[in-house]
């Protein structure tokens, strides 16, 4: 049977298990599904695979939905919760059972453990040996518990023309009759995925290549149901290589942040930067690096998804984030930065000040945290604490110079960056100093640090009264070291 999913309107699905945050690899899978569906004018659906009730939590579900929303990935239709569909899964298992494509297995736990022990001793693959495949169920003790197993094909081979991996072949003899329904009547993952994909009309299964082996177990279920009732075509498979850390190992907590929420909340990454970075992580379009959302939809295809694992590079992400910070609106950035700077920054006046500061802060920052650090001096209360380096700049000579700066600035009629630059350059010339020699102690007095935006921008942002008060504080004693 050939894969026929491409003949139908495209429907993709993202199907995370809600056992924690939205993993960075899951976010990329969601993105690729979303882009492929939108590129083809189709639908991208969301299914929460919450059948592991012990590990699935409302908090995890909320975290996944929040992460998708932050990335701007809105899925079509109602979210499907797999746990609500158990009766439908069992119904399909019964159809397979009734039509000879599945059977009841009464093997006890002890028998299965002995079987595996014998296989280990003989250095054989661990797989179910089919002991109940052709036995009469009447041979089982009355009322004995059983599982339902798929009667998988034993001869020949299964071939998948994967849209990313190419042609992949597995001999059917390597597969076993796996469980469809457990002894308590609950469906297994393999069965539930196939039934849900069919019922949701999924045409393209785009997922991590750690699921490639699952495809060879899931296809026999589809093909058996297609024989029974028709209308169960194979999907088009596209198994995407996993994301690795910088050392080439599978991405994990030891590589740093692994959840989308951490990139937002702890690293200060903008959603459009992570969207763009994940897009380029394993997919490319020539040498182009930055893509608008519309460009990504227009250009995305599976043919340009690589077969090798991608390496996550935090520095590249931060560089891309710096690009998007420079493009972002000042008022939006002010709203993102304000929560990191205390209550003074959150009011209307604080937000206005932050917004006006963004044009001079953005060129220096690669994330929201750096924006906040750059803006912190605006909201520090007097007397200003000084860093150790800043304190060393404010010796007696510097305090004398600060008093002269204050006198000159007090006489200024206009308080703009241009007028301030003119006044201070004039003073520097009178003192026979380079502007830097004058700016260094002034920066320390105004910000408490040795680095900041341009000194004239700092003066303009702080305003006349606050600037002069800070200069006077340090000119008087200069010993408020942090």
UniProtKB/TrEMBL annotation:
Q: Which residues form the Glutamyl/glutaminyl-tRNA synthetase class Ib catalytic domain?
A: 10-318
Q: Where is this motif: 'KMSKS' region?
A: 250-254
Catalysed transformations (reactions) = tRNA(Glu) + L-glutamate + ATP = L-glutamyl-tRNA(Glu) + AMP + diphosphate
Q: Name one GO molecular function term.
A: glutamate-tRNA ligase activity
Which ranges carry the Aminoacyl-tRNA synthetase class I anticodon-binding domain? 333-473
The protein's superkingdom reads Bacteria
- Entry's localization field: Cytoplasm
Q: Which GO terms describe its cellular component?
A: cytosol
Q: What PROSITE patterns does the annotation carry? A: AA_TRNA_LIGASE_I (PS00178)
Q: Where does ATP bind?
A: 253
UniProt keyword terms in alphabetical order: Aminoacyl-tRNA synthetase, ATP-binding, Cytoplasm, Ligase, Nucleotide-binding, Protein biosynthesis
Per the annotation, the residue ranges of the short sequence motif 'HIGH' region are 16-26
Q: Which InterPro entries match?
A: aa-tRNA-synth_I_cd-bd (IPR045462), aa-tRNA-synth_I_codon-bd_sub2 (IPR020751), aa-tRNA-synth_I_CS (IPR001412), aa_tRNA-synth_I_cd-bd_sf (IPR008925), Glu-tRNA-ligase_bac/mito (IPR004527), Glu/Gln-tRNA-synth (IPR000924), Glu/Gln-tRNA-synth_Ib_cat-dom (IPR020058), GluQ/Sye (IPR049940)
Q: Which family does it belong to?
A: Belongs to the class-I aminoacyl-tRNA synthetase family. Glutamate--tRNA ligase type 1 subfamily.
Q: What does this protein do?
A: Catalyzes the attachment of glutamate to tRNA(Glu) in a two-step reaction: glutamate is first activated by ATP to form Glu-AMP and then transferred to the acceptor end of tRNA(Glu).
Q: What is this protein called?
A: Glutamate--tRNA ligase
């Amino acid at each position: 049977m050939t894969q026929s999913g491409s003949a139908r309107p495209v429907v993709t699905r993202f199907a995370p298990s809600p056992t924690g945050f939205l993993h960075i690899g899951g976010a990329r899978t969601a993105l690729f599904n979303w882009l492929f569906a939108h590129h083809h004018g189709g639908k991208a659906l969301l299914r929460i695979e919450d059948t592991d009730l012990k590990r699935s939590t409302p908090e995890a579900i909320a975290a996944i939905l929040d992460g998708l929303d932050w990335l701007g990935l809105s899925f079509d239709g109602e979210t499907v919760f797999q746990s609500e569909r158990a009766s439908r899964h069992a119904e399909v298992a019964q159809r397979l059972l009734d039509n000879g494509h599945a059977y009841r297995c009464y093997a006890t736990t002890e028998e299965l453990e002995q079987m595996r022990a014998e296989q280990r001793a003989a250095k054989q693959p661990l797989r179910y040996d089919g002991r109940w495949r052709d036995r009469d169920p009447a041979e089982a003790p009355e009322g004995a518990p059983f599982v339902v197993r798929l009667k998988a094909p034993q001869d020949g081979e299964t071939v998948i023309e994967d849209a990313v991996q190419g042609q992949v072949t597995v001999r059917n003899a390597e597969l076993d009759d796996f469980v469809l329904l457990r002894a308590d009547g609950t469906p297994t993952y393999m069965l539930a995925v196939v039934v849900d994909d069919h019922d949701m009309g999924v045409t393209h299964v785009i997922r991590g290549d750690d699921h490639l082996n699952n495809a060879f177990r899931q296809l026999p279920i589809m093909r058996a149901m297609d024989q029974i009732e028709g209308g169960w075509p194979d999907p088009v498979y596209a198994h995407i290589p996993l994301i690795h850390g910088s050392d080439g190992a599978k991405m994990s907590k030891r590589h740093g942040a692994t959840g989308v929420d951490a990139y937002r909340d702890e690293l200060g990454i903008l959603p459009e930067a992570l969207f763009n970075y994940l897009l380029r992580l394993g997919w490319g379009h020539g040498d182009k690096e930055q893509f608008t959302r519309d460009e990504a939809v227009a250009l995305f295809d599976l043919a340009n998804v690589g077969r090798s694992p991608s390496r996550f590079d935090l520095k590249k992400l931060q560089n891309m984030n710096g690009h998007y910070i420079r493009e972002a609106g000042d008022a939006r950035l002010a709203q993102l930065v304000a929560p990191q700077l205390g209550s003074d920054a959150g009011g209307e006046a604080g937000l206005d000040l932050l917004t006006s500061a963004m044009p001079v802060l953005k060129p220096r920052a690669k994330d929201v945290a750096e924006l906040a650090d750059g803006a912190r001096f605006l909201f520090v209360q007097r007397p200003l604490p000084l860093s150790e380096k800043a304190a060393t700049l404010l010796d007696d000579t510097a305090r004398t110079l600060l008093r002269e700066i204050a006198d000159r600035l007090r006489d200024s009629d206009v308080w703009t960056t241009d007028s301030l630059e003119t006044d201070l350059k004039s003073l520097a010339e009178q003192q026979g100093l380079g502007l830097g020699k004058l700016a260094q102690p002034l920066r320390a007095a105004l910000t408490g640090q040795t680095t900041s935006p341009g000194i004239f921008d700092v003066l303009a942002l702080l305003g006349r009264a606050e600037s002069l008060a800070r200069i006077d504080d340090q000119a008087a004693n200069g010993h408020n070291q942090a």
